[in-house]
Amino acid sequence: MPKLKPETLRQRRESILDAAERCFARSGFHRTTMQHICKEAGISPGGLYVHFASKEDLIAGITERDRAKLAAKLADLPDAPDLLTALSRLGEHYTLEEPHYKRVLCVEIGCEATRNPAVGEIYRTVDTFCRQSFEQVFAKARESGRIAAEDDPRLLAEVVSLIGDGLFWRRAVHPEFNAQEVLPVLVRMVSELLKPVDPAKEAVRPPPAKPAKKAARARAEAAQ
């Protein structure tokens, strides 16, 4: 059998992960079999097991792929011209633009994480990465004076993660949920927490007034 090129192997691996996502979202982790995924991906069992030995391996591959994509998006946040707008855009991507089955899959993996130690470890690793990444973004923004948040960046990251979890759950289980209507309200809530600093207003802010005694002394010295 001729050896497949690396790019062909990569594309096949991606196709398997795509098929596994759809199967897990449609039928759940336990009802989905490796045979179902083979059929969905249009490959033989041998072609599947070259890349993934189990359903847990598939979950690990799915979550790592999603983590890498999120990492790339988060890497741009610290240098975004408007942090709040960038966060809003991130929320729009994950709640409005991604297909519905992706959110169902997140809920399915989260539920399986409560029963399956292997999946639980995978889930918590990615969840920790997300929270720590947001914490670093908020800490850097506060240090640079871009936000005037009063709360610890760790707590801010925890709250933002909770909001994201809630959005995923609502979109997954409530067909009537209107994320487009809710997002602007959530953005205002996050704005109250972060307290973004407007660079233009900071630039024209007058210097603090001198105390009366110091001002009088300065005038007296100037008159001499």
UniProtKB/TrEMBL annotation:
InterPro entries: BetI_C (IPR039538), DNA-bd_HTH_TetR-type_CS (IPR023772), Homeodomain-like_sf (IPR009057), HTH-type_TetR-like_transc_reg (IPR050109), HTH_TetR (IPR001647), Tet_transcr_reg_TetR-rel_C_sf (IPR036271). PROSITE patterns: HTH_TETR_1 (PS01081), HTH_TETR_2 (PS50977). The keyword Transport does not apply. Residues 10-70 form the HTH tetR-type domain. Coiled coil: none annotated. Pfam families: TetR_C_6, TetR_N. Keywords: DNA-binding, Repressor, Transcription, Transcription regulation. GO terms for molecular function: DNA-binding transcription factor activity; transcription cis-regulatory region binding. Residues 200-224 are annotated as: Disordered. Residues 33-52 bind DNA. This is TetR family transcriptional regulator.
